[in-house]
Write a structure and sequence with these properties.
It is built from three helices and 29 strands. By secondary structure, the protein is mainly β. It folds into two domains: 260 residues, no CATH class; 147 residues, Immunoglobulin-like. Strands 1-9-10-11-17 form a five-stranded mixed sheet. 31% of the residues are buried.
């Protein structure tokens, strides 16, 4: 599977993939406040994962058949004398380690390493030892129909509770095969260097994917530490603490939010042109060019022009004989409605079919067709070679023609 490149710039560009909030739970080897009850690693934990962010994304993701793979990465081990714990890695993650001063960026890097072990070999095997075999998750939990959450160990969820420890969670499309849901993208991001300066970096990132009819979603593999602590942010909302030594009670029923990024899926448009009859004059024939404008708009408004313009271009096809030719227009956003208009058909030809085709909708990884047919009208005006200029006026294409420019003649066979 090839690499993909995304940057913050561009209409369909991905922003930097959002980190799971719980990754900020940096383990600090320090005691908690005396007011907080000491951590009890014999307790069982539950995890509730929200699979989306804003309302529009949340609604769309309900059609993505999201499932959550959960891998046990480490057991939680009490640190004597302090109200905290460390990790004892389990197979096949024993090569990983968590430093006492790990940062948010460190958690992100560790999540990528854990993801490589769990499913990275499905992409290209980068960084995977020879003989890698995909480990089985301890649980694979689907989102319920119409729900924005996946619950693990919660009463009524039909899944077992989780022991205290470190877990890797992988959100993916349940309808995708193993070779389809893992990918590696090239991502640009702006970070702060050791001098506190903002710099742009570029890195390869391992992601899992889910798809709807219009969008492809990208999730980072994420590490979740159970139990954790919840604190109030400046808005009074409960969020995971950035430090397990922060004041507060240990939370054994954690709720975290995955915030995927997405891009449009794409389809193609094929314009099929049939020329049923071709002009000849005094044993000679002249090439003729047909020009088409293409507009694709995204939206539900019944008036085509009121929707967002996502693609606009002009293409052409030239004939020197009767017959059929086509031109393929690729990377049109899935779900877009398309209008194709024959804006120039040569001075000696007239349309047999309508000069405008509407009602087309782009489908992901599919080709929709717009068909046009013209015939010779027996009025030879040698239209080939006219200098045509097409200007988009905001609503359509204006055709401007220079003085007649007689093209070279091709002797008829």
């Amino acid at each position: 599977m090839g690499k993909k490149y995304f940057t913050r710039k561009g209409k369909y560009a991905l922003a930097a993939l959002s980190l799971l909030l719980v990754l900020a739970l940096a383990l600090q080897m320090a005691g908690a406040t005396a007011a907080a009850q000491a951590v009890d690693l014999s307790r069982e934990c539950t995890l509730t994962v929200q699979t989306a962010g804003d309302e529009e994304v949340r609604v769309d993701l309900r059609g993505a058949d999201i499932v959550l793979d959960v891998y046990k990465v480490a057991d939680a081990v009490k640190i004597p004398g302090v109200d905290s714990y460390t990790y004892e890695m389990v197979e096949p993650f024993t090569g990983l380690s968590v430093s006492g001063d790990i940062t948010g960026d460190g958690w992100r890097e560790l999540s990528q390493l854990a993801g490589e072990i769990a499913f990275g070999g499905l992409v290209d095997g980068a960084g995977i030892p020879e003989g890698w075999q995909k480990p089985e998750p301890i649980a694979t939990v689907p989102a319920e129909a119409g729900s924005d959450e996946i619950e693990i160990g919660v009463a009524g969820s039909n899944t077992e509770t989780l022991d205290c420890g470190l877990y890797l969670i992988v959100a993916r499309g349940g309808d995708l095969k193993e070779g389809e849901y893992a990918d590696r993208i090239k991502m640009k991001d702006t970070v702060e260097n050791e001098n506190g300066e903002k710099v742009e970096v570029e890195e390869d990132v391992l992601v899992s994917k889910a798809r709807t009819s219009v969008y492809e979603y990208y999730f980072l593999p994420e590490l979740v530490s159970l139990p954790g602590k919840m604190v109030e942010d400046e808005n009074g909302e409960k969020i995971p603490a950035t430090n397990t030594a922060d004041p507060g009670e240990w939370t054994y029923d954690m709720a975290v939010t995955l915030k995927p990024d997405r891009e449009y899926r794409f389809g193609s448009l094929e314009i099929v042109k049939t020329l049923s009859d071709y002009e000849t004059a005094a044993g000679m024939k002249e090439p003729v060019t047909f020009v088409f404008s293409i507009e694709a708009r995204m939206g539900e408004d019944a008036v085509f022009e009121n929707n967002e313009l996502v693609y606009s271009n002009v293409v052409s096809v030239t004939f020197t004989d009767p017959g059929q030719k086509s031109v393929l227009v690729e990377r049109l956003p899935a779900g877009a409605r398309v209008r194709v208009t024959e804006v120039y058909s040569g001075s000696s030809y007239e349309p047999v079919t309508p000069a405008e085709v509407t009602g087309l909708t782009v489908e992901a990884n599919a080709v929709v067709q717009a068909e046009f047919t013209n015939t010779y009208n027996h009025r030879n005006r040698s239209g080939y070679g006219i200098n045509n200029k097409f200007t988009y006026n905001g609503n359509g294409w204006d055709l401007e023609q220079d003085e007649w420019n007689w093209g070279s003649w091709v002797e008829a066979e």
